[in-house]
Amino acid sequence: MTQISIIFDIDDTLYDQVFPIVSACEETFGLKLEDPMRFYLTFRKRSNEWFFRAEQGEVSLGDSRINRIRQTMEDLSVSISEEQAEHFQTMYEEKTLQLHMSDRLTAFMGRCTLENVRMGILTNGPHEHQMKKYYTLGLNRWISPNMILISQSAGYAKPDVRIFRMAERKMGLIPEMTWMVGDSLSNDIAGAVKAGWHSLWLARHSAAEDRISGLTPDETAYSEEELCAILEDKIKEAKSL
Fold it and tell me: What is the DSSP string of 5-45?
């Protein structure tokens, strides 16, 4: 019997990231967004850009958080003050303490634990912030802290292949038997492909233009139900080998 390993991203993979971001915006600025998805996708784009600038030492982490929301609102033709930007960040952090996993994902992880499927987490972000999400989501029920690797602690961020190699060493992973599950083509999937891992893209909120030319995930899921069904099939296939 062959056993596979499943490594998850956190944000917008193990929970739907729309709620904390959109609700933080609406409460901070006292408005009802006419197009919440447009705001969300714009924020994610700017957040990713400023995250990597912070990773490269161009700006501080604090400044990157302020700049991402200010630039997001500028993209939407709304001017905000630095004080409002700081308040948004505070609200967003509070909202992340209200996160929860769906019943479908919870049940899937419970079954994986019973079947001794190796699971881990590989995520970009500040260590303390991501660990708060780990405990808030209750991931410690199925994934031990020694099966987590966070970019700030690693010194590298996805899609850098070096963080995937670090994960292999830390978690005892065999590349050709490891599945990377994530929502980001440019970070999760591109990195997994370079590392020789299998890749499953969760395209919750992705549009056609999010696809990257020449990059094809091994599998694509458009919902948590599809994601779990695909992984359940992969676990069965591995056991039959």
Answer: EEEE--TTTTS-THHHHHHHHHHHHT---S-HHHHHHHHHH
Of residues 116, 112, 109, 104, the one with CA closest to residue 138: 109
* Arch. (CATH architecture) of 5-15+100-240: 3-Layer(aba) Sandwich (3.40)
Strands (E) located in the chain: 5-8, 118-123, 148-150, 178-182, 198-202, 219-221
Contacts of 213 (CB under 8 A, 6+ apart): none
Cβ contact 186:212 at 8 Å:
yes
First to last CA, the chain: 6
Rounded distance between C-alpha atoms, residue 225 and residue 204, angstroms: 11
Output the furthest CA–CA distance in the chain (Å, rounded).
Answer: 59
Specify the DSSP element, H or E, that contains 229: helix 224-240
- Give residue 1's pLDDT: 55
Of 158, 145, 138, 154, nearest in space to 119 by CA: 145
**How far is 132 from 47, CA to CA, in rounded Å?**
19
> pLDDT digit string (tens) for 19-57?
999 999 999 998 899 899 999 999 999 999 999 999 889
Query: Could you tell me the residue ranges of all domains in the chain?
Result: 5-15+100-240, 18-96
pTM score: 0.91
